[in-house]
Amino acid sequence: MQIAVNLFRCLGDEAIDRPRYLTFTIGGEQAANCADYLTEGRSVAIEVQLVQGGHSAEGVASAVYFVGSVSRAGTQFARA
Questions:
Q1: Which of 22, 38, 62, 68 has the fewest CB atoms within 10 Å distance of its CB?
Q2: Is 7 domain-assigned?
């Protein structure tokens, strides 16, 4: 799985806002749940151990949490 997060920082008076891509592996039952319930743009919280290098990072997810419902009507956490 790969996700993009915004990297925002200031260098002097200049603000830099650019995407940072994180790649990680999901295995077992968590992978099956992600295949069933994850869609582009769906909010998730991920516990992952990252190894960074350059402009990317790789790692293995220890837990994936789906934030809200599929219809985005709620704000419940469901552990994958």
A1: 62
A2: no
Our CA angle for 78, 4, 54, nearest 5°, is 125
* Structural contact between residues 16 and 6, judged by C-beta atoms closer than 8 angstroms: no
Structure tokens at 71: 């219809």
Task: Specify the pTM.
Answer: 0.55
Residue 75 lies in a domain: yes
User: Is residue 5 a part of any domain in this protein?
Assistant: no
How far CA 19 is from CA of 7, 16, 22, 55, in Å, comes to 6, 10, 10, 9
- Total structural domains within the chain: 1
Contact 18, 7 (CB under 8 A): yes
Q: What is the pLDDT of residues 30-60, one digit of tens each?
A: 888 888 888 877 888 888 877 776 666 678 8
Q: How far apart are CA 18 and CA 20, in angstroms?
A: 7
